[in-house]
């Protein structure tokens, strides 16, 4: 049987992602100060604090995977100002609409979910690869996961290659010129700086590899 990820693991992933964003707020602030308006840290920290609060509310559990992703999306859209809130919100909202078994996903369903999210994000933001945005981390990661799935790799391997691809994509944003968002106003002066949104997006795949790549423990079987 294909290895499965539980609702509880997905929830734990999003909570660990929130922990990461909150702990690294200053790094995002510093990156956005160089090529934007220095608010990506505060935007993401504020949004993910709300997400974490909501996901940890014992009186209001998300009953299934679609509800979990919808909740994250709606929280980000309502709590985060700037471009990133609606963009991440759209990513999770679209991911919520992809087919799943309610409380479990296998690698194929996870890859499809992330593909739905990526396509939604690109439709919304009209950004393509090499525009120096979060797409530069997310798209290679989704493609790497799809390739791993197609070649019959395990879930852990698929998550590891997705993380690696996201990291390379994030690092590649240093070398390219921004064509979207505020950083694009700088033209060639945006070259030499890592994109803040690609950085926060990389952490999504870094934390996924940590939480979803290891077997579900009894406490997170969802
Ligand atoms: N059209 C877009 N599509 C995808 N990602 C985008 C787009 N525009 C900006 N971004 C991402 O959003 C990040 C900036 O998010 P932030 O929270 O700082 O919002 P913001 O200051 O309103 O953004 P901006 O002014 O750059 O549009 C960028 O680093 C980039 O990765
Ligand atoms: Mg900004």
Strand and helix map with partners:
Elements: E1 4-6, H1 7-23, H2 25-35, H3 40-55, H4 65-79, H5 84-96, E2 104-106, H6 107-125, H7 135-150, H8 155-172, H9 196-212
Antiparallel strand pairs: 1-2
Helix pairs in contact: 1-3, 1-9, 2-3, 2-9, 3-4, 4-5, 5-6, 6-7, 7-8, 7-9, 8-9
The structure holds adenosine-5'-triphosphate and magnesium ion.
Describe the model:
- It is a single chain.
- Helix content is 64%, strand content 3%.
- The protein has helices spanning 7-23, 25-35, 40-55, 65-79, 84-96, 107-125, 135-150, 155-172, 196-212; strands spanning 4-6, 104-106.
- It has one domain (4-216): Alpha Horseshoe (Serine Threonine Protein Phosphatase 5, Tetratricopeptide repeat), CATH 1.25.40.
- It contains 9 helices and 2 strands, in the order E-H-H-H-H-H-E-H-H-H-H.
- It has a two-stranded antiparallel sheet with strand order 1-2.
- With 222 residues, it is mainly α.
- The mean pLDDT is 95.
- Helix 4 packs antiparallel against helix 5 (84-96), helix 7 (135-150) runs parallel beside helix 9 (196-212) and helix 8 (155-172) packs antiparallel against helix 9.
- The structure holds adenosine-5'-triphosphate and magnesium ion (MG).
- Magnesium ion is lined by residues 32, 36-37, 39-40, 82, 182.
């Amino acid at each position: 049987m294909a290895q499965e990820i539980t609702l509880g693991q997905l929830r734990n992933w999003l909570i660990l992602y929130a922990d990461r964003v909150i702990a690294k707020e200053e790094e995002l602030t510093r990156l956005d100060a160089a090529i934007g308006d220095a608010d990506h840290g505060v935007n993401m920290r504020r949004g993910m604090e709300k997400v974490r609060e909501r996901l940890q509310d014992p009186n209001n559990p998300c009953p299934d995977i679609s509800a979990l992703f919808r909740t994250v999306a709606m929280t980000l859209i309502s709590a985060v100002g700037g471009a990133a809130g609606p963009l991440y919100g759209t990513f999770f909202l679209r991911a919520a609409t992809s087919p799943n078994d309610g409380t479990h996903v296998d690698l194929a369903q996870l890859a499809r979910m992330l593909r739905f999210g990526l396509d939604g994000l690109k439709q919304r933001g009209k950004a393509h690869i090499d525009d120096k945005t979060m797409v530069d981390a997310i798209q290679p990661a989704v493609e790497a996961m799809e390739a791993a799935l197609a070649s019959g790799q395990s879930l852990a391997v698929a998550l590891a290659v997705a993380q690696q691809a996201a990291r390379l994509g994030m690092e590649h944003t240093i070398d390219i010129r921004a064509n979207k968002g505020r950083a694009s106003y700088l033209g060639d002066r945006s070259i030499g700086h890592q994109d803040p949104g690609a950085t926060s997006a990389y952490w999504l795949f870094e934390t996924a590899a940590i939480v979803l790549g290891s077997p579900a423990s009894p406490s997170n079987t969802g």
